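Quick one:
INPUT:
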């Protein structure tokens, strides 16, 4: 099935590309490590249900989401693999967490005690993963806290330690020595946990960057996110990974106008025609997630060729300079992100111009824009 363009603006999700990227991650992980597919934040804006169903079919072993709500969405989409909540959960969400068989990550004692109480009251033993702060400086128990946590854990009869994890702060800078320091800290804490009599089933540390740049033999599970969606963890990986972009964002030319030299365009007249120009209005702006920072510098594809944003990106409109595109017509397809013909606008390109990272480019594409899925196998 090929997506049609009855929508004025739409996002195409290429599930065949998603499968390809998943297989790249799988082969990098090797036979001895399992794969937790990170589908948090609505699968980085790609749509959590269809993405997870595709990855489950492809053989993802576990899934990682940001919240109890996202875990519930996976269950409703028919995901039966283990689902780990990488984010937090809040007082009152314990029942839902247990009902949907979600696996929490615990990094504070209060939350653990509360969950323990609710699990006991339900006659359940809830598996959990223990989050360690080995240098990310965000959430997780720090090395000096671990002893006290292990001592208290013995009393949590409604909980069962099933996994141990930490998160890396600089894995996307492969030369940085912090990653090996974090790994050593992690191994030391893991030993302390084992010495206390625990045998965690899962030991994990690697995001996409670490999966492709670091060998961390203590781990038996990896947690790739961004590479599944076909983008690089950072420029350090340019040319080193065989990935295909999954998301293409398309709209069309709504109106064309011919303007004489000197015409000012859009708010602030930040574009002034230096030649007789053909300008096109496209019905997409920053409210759709097309960053205002792309004003005057973003490029889109029309008829397979690049055209530049003319002036300021507005809330619902953007003007583009199509003077150099022969045969351009109202209704022509415009690609804001993704490929058209031999050309491609990568998330990395938009991110560099907008002063952010590909992750944010994906997440910002408005949820109001329909996602159309196709899977050319
Ligand atoms: C988001 C996230 C990941 C995935 O990171 P990528 O850089 O997208 O591969 C892995 N682990 C945790 C804890 C995360 O929050």
């Amino acid at each position: 099935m090929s997506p049609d363009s009855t929508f004025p603006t739409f996002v195409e999700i290429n599930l065949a590309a998603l499968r390809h990227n998943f297989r790249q991650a799988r082969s990098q992980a090797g036979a001895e490590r399992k794969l937790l597919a990170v589908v948090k934040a609505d699968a980085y804006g790609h749509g959590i249900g269809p993405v997870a169903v595709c990855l489950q079919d492809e053989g993802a072993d576990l899934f990682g989401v940001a919240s109890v709500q996202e875990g519930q969405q996976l269950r409703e989409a028919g995901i039966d693999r283990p689902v780990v909540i990488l984010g937090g959960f809040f007082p009152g969400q314990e029942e839902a967490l247990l009902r949907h068989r979600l696996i929490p990550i615990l990094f504070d004692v209060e939350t653990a005690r509360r969950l323990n109480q609710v699990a006991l009251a339900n006659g359940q033993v809830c598996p959990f993963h223990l989050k360690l702060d080995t240098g990310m400086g965000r959430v997780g128990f720090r090395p000096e806290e671990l002893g006290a946590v292990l001592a208290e854990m013995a009393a949590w009869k409604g909980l069962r330690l099933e996994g141990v994890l930490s998160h890396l702060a600089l894995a996307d800078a492969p030369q940085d020595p912090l990653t090996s320091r974090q790994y050593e800290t992690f191994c030391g804490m893991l030993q302390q946990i084992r010495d206390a009599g625990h045998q965690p089933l899962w030991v994990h540390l690697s995001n996409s960057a670490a999966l492709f740049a670091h060998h961390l033999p203590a781990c038996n599970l990896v947690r790739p996110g961004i590479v599944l969606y076909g983008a690089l963890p950072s420029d350090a990986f340019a040319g080193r990974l065989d990935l295909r972009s999954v998301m293409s964002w398309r709209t069309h030319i709504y109106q064309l106008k011919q303007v004489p030299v000197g015409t000012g365009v859009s708010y602030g007249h930040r574009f002034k025609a230096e030649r007789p120009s053909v300008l096109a209005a496209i019905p997409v702006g920053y409210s759709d997630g097309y960053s205002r920072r792309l004003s005057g510098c973003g490029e889109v594809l029309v008829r397979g060729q690049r055209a530049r944003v003319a002036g300021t990106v507005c809330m619902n409109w953007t003007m583009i300079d199509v003077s150099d595109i022969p045969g351009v017509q109202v209704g022509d397809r415009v690609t804001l992100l993704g490929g058209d013909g031999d050309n491609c606008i990568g998330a990395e390109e938009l991110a560099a111009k907008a002063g952010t990272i590909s992750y944010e480019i994906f997440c910002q594409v408005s949820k109001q824009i329909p996602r159309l899925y196709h899977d050319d196998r």
